[in-house]
Amino acid sequence: MRFDEAYSGKVFIMSGNDFEKAKAVIYGMPMDWTVSFRPGSRFGPGRIREASIGLEEYSPYMDKHLEEVAFFDAGDIPLPFGNAERSLHMIREYIGKLLAQGKFPIGLGGEHLVTWPVIQAMYEKHPDMALIHIDAHADLREEYEGETLSHSTPVRKICDLIGADNVYSFGIRSGMREEFQFAKESGMHMSKFHVAEPLKRMLPELQGRKVYVTIDIDVLDPAFAPGTGTAEAGGISSTELLDAIQLIAESDIQVIGADLVEVAPVYDHSEKTAIAASKFIREILLGWVK
Asked: So which residues are the signal peptide here (predicted)?
């Protein structure tokens, strides 16, 4: 299930060659058709893979080596440029196929709207699921400038689908007044500004549950991740996000899939954003794929 026509030959470090034997599958969603500020996140998946070559295969955080995880890099879904509706349909269809084969999906974005079709497919298989959402932005709008398919809307769509009380957002520091009001009144769980400490307090509530995790790289302060489309000052450090990934790995929740989105490498000539993102993916592979 590799996308041969679009596949560039670059894979995440130590990716295996056997899809059938893989427990986890990395796939790219190179879409930035609905962004509200700066485009470029469609180039994120490729740069994350390239940056991974500089990683050590061993993680001192997890005390594990990538050779201990059977995973396969499928390349990027060949999404039709500018066609958001068709792109979302293709993502949902692909995730459905991965889940039918028992794979743990790890998505590379792309703008944050790509998480919406992933959750639609996930919810069909796991109707009792919850979402952990780590982001600078609430993403709770119903529309942006009249457009309902926007990277400002995925979490609101997910609240409507799986129930707001099953959505846990962390690190939020930007959004409309109405978005924060919705969070208060809907029953969803929103922690502003920080991630690791509120996550540590909240994880016992999710004990034993099936949870999908979506991470927007702009949860990091621009000092750590300038390469993103909608950078937001006042964010967390790379260390805090690594702590959060480890907390989830050590918890009793069952992670059923994950994605990392909104890496836009054109705005970061130092490549620190892609380098950080590749390290987070390594930790997700080693900590969340059981």
From this structure: none
